[in-house]
Specification:
The structure holds 3 protein chains of 3 kinds. By secondary structure, chain A is an all-alpha fold. Helix content of chain A is 74%, strand content 2%. Chain C has a single domain, classed as Orthogonal Bundle (MetI-like fold). The chains are: A mainly alpha, B alpha/beta, C mainly alpha.
Chain lengths: 325, 480, 308
């Protein structure tokens, strides 16, 4: 009996060995269409970013004007010397650490709930799909209406929708985004925005993952009388773990590049009254580009690149251990 | 992961070769063609690209004049493109310059041109203006409003002219005429009061308004950056200068500027005035407000300083019974010194960028000249836009006189009234020096004014001073 | 005694099933409540977009935002339509959207297959490199890519005219065709399909391609739909790149056509109500297509799932 099994196993593994040899060129063949385009439109620009970062004071327009640049690390020095560099770094890191877990958990709960109901499922799915056809400018406008307090001192024209709501419970009014608002209040609003903005995409991906899962697992659990919570942790999460890993890793990468959400709320001043207290590293990059200062922009991008690389490596390591394929 | 790190190392090694190769890259073409050559109307088919930000109504005016232009020069095609906002035009031009595919003519603000200059592709317009064949006559130059025309020379070298004014706006003071008349208030013409009976000072008037109506915020100022810069011009205090050394460019961190900030700060703390950022909404909305707040009062301002081009936004909408809530009056903004009147000049200019084929530049010039020396175009464009003409002769046209005749204190005639005020203050226009980083200075002083006047009541002098230092340091470290 | 016991048991079972029913009801109530609250939260910006498109600019600029337009105006829709040649714009966008979605799906499926099933040297390294391209802000790519499609190559000082592909459909389709984002997503799905299935197919002599086509794709349909939706929406909303590389009349896309003409008022201020109107117009057909498409495809797919 056991002998038979080992023979079978051997057979299978020898087949797989065979495949491995053959697949050497096959892998590259399947990859080639993507690779050709990637080399031209992604790898080359990435390499170019490295180049620009290490040419002191590189400026795309100055190249046209015939100026030359020496090799060095001046651009990195300039970026680090920027008075708000530490603030940018802190904001960038914190935004990620706060928003990724919350939005992922929420999205997971919503998808599981969506997947578990029968009546009205289609209606709810459509509703959660609607944000896709919403322009992101509209979200910025909504936030403005919700959090902006209009007025001066005691003379308040409107406290904003949120303040009116929490006012019912005797809280506030809180200055969320206006001049004089605290860094913490701003952070709260920006995080809310990011979580909100990220939800639809995550729901779409996780729901897709859940729909791929075989219903038999749940039926088996039901027959065994496994509690719902146990089913969630023991069956749902492992089965959807590849999609979870995907969502977490990509939203970390996206979170580090956060910029448009802050502009959506505060405008290009990146803070209440444009004071820049919510500025991020990518915000700095966007400040350099209109001056064609690609050298500094590239250096800042590479610093960011380094951070994302480390975090992604950690993420990848953890998911290798935890993800169940 | 190990492999990945190894690969990254490899990339670094490759790069060093890549870097040296590119560092030695030859300049693509020589740009000094010599400025003494004379130009002529090009022959054969030429296409001139023109980037702008015009919305639909303005574009219709432009197209109308392009058709007229083509009756005279059928061989020159004008490819006009509306790119989006001013920043979109800037970003696209910067990118295209790097590929050598820049448009021949572009809408611009001075600091955009300062950035473009490093490419050495911005045409010195004097080369054309002084040309014996296609240049401008003395009379044509004199027809431009001097303050607007001078803008083209503010790039650090007075002998070079890089932009021509296209259409301009400025800041004006809107006031609630009905309220002023009812309470016997005088329209303020200077900022700070010289004594208790100085009833034409802003300080006196806003205090008076606050006495009459304690729930009002008497003055709303739209743009903080404009306010700061205008004050430095009026008071002749240092702001910026276009020099090579980065550290010497930003001069706004000084005691004199702190002085006027202190005055405005006390106004703000006493609820006498606000700005767009501090108020949290459009100050024009505050000025025209008719809706009650949660406590049942209508919060108003009675004076609003904002762009002359946005006049219609400063007028309240008609009530249901067909009447207007109040009449709006317009006046020149207050001054600090009657002998040194200054108001800011804003609005688009145009610049010309070098093309591979110099024929295209010649054609572009012919078009620029046609458009900018045509009072009819200037008049029609300004009547549609709310901007004001850059040519004196435009104001003399019958069409424009009719427009002026329709000026009144309500929504339908306010644009004309605003244009009229602009014309009256033509000698007072100023622009600040433009250089790479001048927009940083502008942004920073705007933020500075906001944080300064809205800082907590118990803020110490050192804390306030630190705000100036921070703004200065940001400017410096952003431009190294 | 035994009678009593029996009846006790019955009572127990009954109460147990009753409590189960109550807990079920509670669970469903909580689920629906949670979903409804989240739905309202998520849909609010969409609602705002729609009502904003019916507001006047004056109302939009008012200091107190209104939750419902004071007076409905259709003017914004007229503005959004007025200048643009909508049919042409629509046709261009449809063409670019469909072609790039189809091509992108092919490329994505092939690469995801290679990364999940085929073993070859350098696979993980390659995958790491792909991921690395996502870690740099996209703006930096834009400039370099623009130079590339304009025929400006590294080490050559003069642009090569023959390689200038601006103002073609190719330049709208190819530079943005490959998305590491989607390759990664599909790879994750493919990895969930048990390897035994693949090995068994190999023993049967099924070719890789046939296996991919007959087994893997049908099992990953919901991810494929997700990618289709995202890619199509992306093609529909992309703005900066097309404006830069192909803004001529023959290729102009809908976002560029609508924005350039009508989104700034006379004073250079953004006319948000008109912009929202334009976005609503543009998104609506797409929304309908996806609602129906999704329903149709999901019905056709056997819901057998992947695992097991």
């Amino acid at each position: 009996m056991s002998k038979e099994k080992t023979v079978k196993k051997k057979k299978l593994s020898s087949v797989s060995d065979n495949i491995d040899v053959k697949n050497q060129y096959k892998g590259w063949l399947y990859l080639s269409p993507a690779l050709i385009l990637l080399i031209i439109f992604s790898f080359y620009p990435l390499l170019n970013t490295f180049r620009m970062a290490f040419l002191n004071g590189y400026n795309g327009l100055a190249i046209v004007g015939g100026e030359k640049f020496s090799i060095g690390i001046e651009n990195f020095k300039t970026v680090i010397n920027y008075v708000d560099f530490k603030l940018c770094l802190k904001n960038t890191l914190l935004l990620c650490v706060i928003t990724v877990p919350i939005s992922t958990t929420l999205a997971l709960l919503i998808s599981v709930a969506l997947n578990s109901i029968k009546p009205l499922q289609k209606v709810y799915q459509t509703v959660f799909f609607l944000p896709y056809v919403t322009n992101s400018i509209a979200i910025g406008m909504v936030f403005h209406a919700m959090f902006t307090q209009v007025g001066l001192g005691d003379l308040i024209q409107t406290a904003g929708i949120i303040n009116n709501i929490i006012g019912v419970f005797g809280i506030g009014p809180i200055n969320f985004v206006n001049v004089g608002s605290t860094w913490g209040a701003n952070m709260f609003v920006v995080c809310t925005y990011i979580i909100w903005h990220a939800l639809p995409f995550k729901i779409l991906v996780l729901l897709g993952g859940l729909q791929n899962v075989n219903k038999q697992y749940y039926e088996a659990a039901k027959i065994d009388g496994t509690s719902k919570i146990r089913t969630f942790f023991r069956i749902t999460i492992p089965l959807v773990s590849p999609m979870l890993a995907y969502v977490i890793i990509t939203s970390f990468i996206g979170g580090f590049k956060e910029y448009s959400s802050i502009v959506g709320i505060f405008g290009e001043g990146m803070g209440p009254g444009g004071n820049g207290q919510m500025n991020t590293l990518v915000g700095y990059v966007y400040n350099m580009l209109p001056k064609s200062n690609s050298g500094n922009a590239s250096a800042a991008s590479l610093i960011l690149f380094g951070i994302i690389l480390i975090v992604t490596a950690i993420n990848g390591y953890v998911s290798k251990k935890k993800v169940h394929y | 992961m190990k492999k990945f790190i190894a690969l990254m190392l490899l990339v670094f090694i490759c790069l060093s070769g890549f870097l040296t190769a590119c560092g030695d890259k030859e300049p693509t073409d020589s740009n000094n063609q010599g400025s003494k050559t004379s130009h002529s109307v090009p022959e054969g088919d030429v296409t001139v690209t023109f980037y702008h930000t015009m919305g639909k109504n303005l574009r219709d005016v432009l197209v109308k004049y392009i058709e007229k232009f083509n009756k005279i020069y059928p061989n020159i095609t004008i490819d006009e493109q509306s790119i989006g906002g001013y920043d979109d035009v800037r970003d696209q031009v910067i990118t295209e310059l790097q590929a050598g595919k820049q448009p021949a003519i572009a809408y611009c603000y001075p600091d955009h041109v300062a950035t473009y200059l490093r490419s050495k592709k911005v045409v010195d317009l004097n080369e054309y203006i002084n040309d014996e064949n296609v240049g401008l006559t003395e009379a044509q130059i004199a027809d431009f409003i001097a303050g607007y025309y001078a803008e083209g020379k503010q790039f650090g070298d007075e002998t070079k002219m890089y932009t021509l004014p296209f259409s301009k706006s400025t800041e004006v003071m809107y006031y609630n005429k009905t309220f002023f008349d009812a309470n016997g208030l005088k329209v303020p013409d200077h900022w700070f009061s010289t004594g208790a009976s100085d009833d034409t000072s802003m300080e006196y008037v806003i205090k008076k308004i606050k006495e009459i109506e304690p729930t009002s915020i008497p003055l709303g100022y739209d743009s903080e950056a404009n306010w700061f810069i205008t004050m430095t011009e009026q008071l002749k205090t240092p702001y910026t200068q276009a020099v090579d050394n980065v550290a010497d460019r930003f001069l706004f961190n000084n005691e004199q500027n702190m002085d006027f900030c202190n005055k405005f700060r006390s106004w703000c703390l006493n609820g006498l005035m606000t700005t767009q950022a501090i108020y949290g909404g459009y100050t024009s909305g505050l000025f025209t407000n008719t809706s009650t707040n949660d406590s049942g009062i209508v919060i108003h301002s009675y004076i609003s300083i904002g762009s002359s081009a946005g006049a219609t936004y400063q007028c309240p909408a008609k009530l249901d019974n067909g009447s207007y809530p109040f009449e709006v009056g317009i006046a020149t903004i207050p001054q600090a010194d009657a002998s040194n009147k200054k108001v800011i000049s804003q609005g688009p200019s145009i610049c010309m960028l070098k093309q591979k084929d110099s024929k295209v530049n010649d054609a572009a010039w012919i078009f620029i000249k046609f458009l900018l020396t045509s009072p009819e175009f200037q008049a029609e464009f300004s009547m549609t836009s709310g901007y004001v003409p850059v040519l004196r002769s435009a104001y003399e046209l019958d069409a424009y006189k009719d427009f002026f005749a329709g000026a009144n204190n309500y929504k339908d005639g306010i644009a004309a009234l605003s244009a009229k005020i602009c014309m009256e203050q033509e000698s007072a226009y100023f622009t600040s020096p433009a250089f790479v980083g001048s927009s940083d200075a502008r942004d920073e002083v705007g933020k500075l004014l906001v944080s300064y006047i809205s800082a907590a009541e118990n803020a110490t002098e050192a804390e306030l001073k630190q705000l100036f230092t921070d703004a200065y340091n940001r400017c410096i470290t952003l431009n190294q | 005694m035994s009678e009593f016991n029996k009846s006790m048991k019955e009572v127990n079972v009954e109460s147990a099933s009753r409590s189960q029913r109550t807990s079920k009801i509670i669970r469903y109530t909580i689920t629906y409540l949670f979903l409804t609250v989240m739905a309202v939260v998520v849909i609010f910006p969409f609602y705002w977009m729609i009502i904003s498109s019916f507001k006047t600019m004056d109302e939009y600029r008012a200091n107190v935002p209104t939750l419902w337009p004071q007076n409905f105006v259709l003017e914004n829709f007229a503005t959004a339509f007025s200048k643009a040649n909508l049919m042409n714009l629509f046709a261009h966008t449809m063409f670019v959207g469909v072609v790039s979605t189809v091509l992108s799906l092919i490329v994505t499926v092939l690469s995801a297959f290679a990364f999940s099933r085929l073993h070859f040297k350098g696979r993980n390294l390659m995958f790491g490199l792909l991921m690395a391209t996502m870690m740099v802000p996209g703006e930096l790519y834009t400039i370099t890519n623009y130079l590339t499609v304009s025929g400006r190559l590294p080490f050559i000082s003069e642009p090569v005219e023959a390689l200038d592909i601006t103002n073609t459909y190719a330049v709208l389709i190819f530079p943005m065709l490959v998305s590491v984002f989607y390759i990664y997503l599909l790879r994750q799905t493919f990895l969930q399909i048990p390897n035994e299935l693949y090995l068994a197919a190999k023993v049967d002599g099924t070719s890789d391609f046939k296996y991919l086509w007959k087994v893997m794709l049908p099992l990953s349909v919901s991810t494929i739909i997700t990618i289709t939706i995202l890619k199509m929406m992306g093609a529909w909303n992309v703005y900066i790149w097309p404006r830069l590389v192909a803004n001529d009349e023959a290729h102009q896309l809908i976002t560029n056509g609508l924005r350039g003409a009508s989104f700034t008022d006379e004073f250079g201020e953004t006319n948000y109500p008109a912009q929202m109107a334009a976005v609503s117009i543009v998104s609506f057909p797409l929304f309908l297509v996806f609602v129906f498409l999704r329903k149709y495809i999901m019905r056709g797919v056997s819901r057998s799932g992947i695992k097991g």
